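Journal club side-thread
Mid-discussion, someone asked how the predicted structure for our own chain would compare to the paper's figures. Pasting it here so we can look after the session.
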Amino acid sequence: MRELLAKLIETYGPAGVEDNISDVIRKEIEDYVDEIETDIMGNLIAVKRGDEGGKRVMLSAHMDQIGLMVTYIDENGFLRFSNIGGINVLNTINNKVIFQNGTIGTVSYESEITDIKEIKLDRMYIDIGATSLEEASEKISIGDVAVYYSPLKESGGRYIGGAMDNRASCALLIQAIKDLKDCKHDAYFVFSAQEEVGLRGARTSAYAIDPDIGIAVDVTATGDTPKARTMAVKLGEGPTVKIKDASVICHPKVKDMLIDTAKRENIPYQLEVLEWGGTDTGAIHLTKEGVPSGAVSIPCRYIHSANEMVDDKDIKYGAKLIVAVLENQIEL
């Protein structure tokens, strides 16, 4: 898992520019599925056919990451930027970033920070070491996007690095595809595009697939750090079965099916009520006449920072749960 996760989180792929990460995932799974394609939105969709009479199951993990889009280059070569997705200014200052062409920069602020409440995105800039507009323009153009530069580190079975949201879930689905032996259903594995800017890829792919059931896989917050916001989720205690977030109240039958499967297979799990945020489930469940949908989440500390943290056990047990769902009958 370490090697796979390192490859995924260290591959460039902000929302709207998912080609690189899509290619990496395709190479990992193409020998294990019956069909694979990239649709017009950039979603990578892999299909594993099951038994006649089985359900059409959509499993979605977004592959895009948050980023910083260059909006202006000044005469001294400093880059102003806007956000692609949920950028937290406090998590961004003094962090290294990398552009698609490999250019490295650091994010800084116009002046000494005396009050964190006054920090604004439009007063931040990226320094790529250029000394002039002309020098910077040889490397970077308006509209180029940088992402956090934070290679994988491991400590005691816990992984630290950028883009765990949501490459950890991509790793989970990749592992599930490789472990799946006796699929009872037509399983559509969607590595979706542009989730971070509005669940866009999941919306269009769900419309095309028209699933009988939808399950998103994403990360979720934890409540196990000092003075953390109260939440009944801990790192290393197993994947979560989502009950609700700001985008969805999960279908009770899908929620119960996931819980029953975890219990039957002796898979540790947690129950998740996320009071903010959303996942691809929010788009899937509103498709056409509605799709019964749920979600499995990987507990993750420091979401949307350059150094997110997940636990190896939560990913592996999550993959085991997805495999168990697909290798058994689904009654809703």
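Post-session note: The chain has a mean pLDDT of 96.
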